[in-house]
Amino acid sequence: MHALNDPAAIKARFIAARGYWRPWTEALLHANPAFLSTYAEYAGYPARTGPLTPRMVELIYVALDTSPTHLYEAGLTTHLKLALAAGASEADVFDVLHLVTLQGLGAVLQAADVLDEAAPSAALPPDDPLAARIQALWPDQAASLLRLAAQDPGYVAVLLDFVEGGAPAGGLSHAERLLVRIALHAAFTEGNRGALQALIPHALTQGVTRAEILQVIQLGAHPAVHGASLGATVYTKVVADNRNEPGKADATA
């Protein structure tokens, strides 16, 4: 393990591993340098050792930070800049945003399946054109979508219109889209096991590798550091405010 008593070396290693330096990292450098040094290795490991390109790693972080389950603007700004620097195109970014918008579908499908169990609907006829569209556009969740279509075909029709027509031209490859979707469902902010049980086997049949899937799963843990970044930032502000208020002792905890 690296020595933890050289702030300049810790800062340099962190920037080399993560590609940025922010006020919260500066606060941690002074208050808890061991955290910063070991976190750089922990977070940097999946980013640099898996098969994904730097462009794709940063696009995964863009997806995680824009996810409705996280919505972390500071992290998004950092990783969007890094993604563009790594060669991501405008179409790549807006393709990610399209997939992020579809993240909410997972909850709809789970709840609609529960409703169908409690109050079953007649199955959608297999020759219904909607059934063919479901299989073509969202095959990994076809069973749930077919049950939902039996309950409300109009909803599924407009959903598939958005799936098919809402993505920009020239964006991510099919495999890359699957990886973004896996990352969103696997992240600690969602953890949708049912979606993953359908999506991961499908991705493997589409040429996505086990190593690529494992890498995006591991990347999904690291937005949790935003709790530490918030805490370090607020702590620094509170201490500074206390020092500037006459008669108040410095905060120590």
Structure description:
The chain has 253 residues and is mainly α. The protein has 2 domains: 49 residues, no CATH class; 171 residues, Up-down Bundle (AhpD-like). Helices cover 70% and strands 0% of the residues. Helix 2 crosses helix 3, helix 2 crosses helix 14 and helix 8 runs parallel beside helix 10. The longest helix is centred in the last third of the chain and has 20 residues. 33% of the residues are buried.
Topology order in helix (H) and strand (E) letters: HHHHHHHHHHHHHH
Q: Oligomer, anyone?
A: single chain
**3D shape:** elongated
Low-confidence stretches: none
Could you give the topology of this structure?
Layout: H1 7-18, H2 23-31, H3 33-49, H4 54-66, H5 73-85, H6 90-101, H7 105-118, H8 129-137, H9 142-151, H10 153-165, H11 174-186, H12 193-205, H13 210-219, H14 225-244
Describe the structure in brief.
With 253 residues, the protein is mainly α. The protein has helices at 7-18, 23-31, 33-49, 54-66, 73-85, 90-101, 105-118, 129-137, 142-151, 153-165, 174-186, 193-205, 210-219, 225-244.
Summarize this structure as a short list of keywords or feature phrases:
mainly alpha, 253 residues, AhpD-like, CMD-like, Carboxymuconolactone decarboxylase, 2 domains
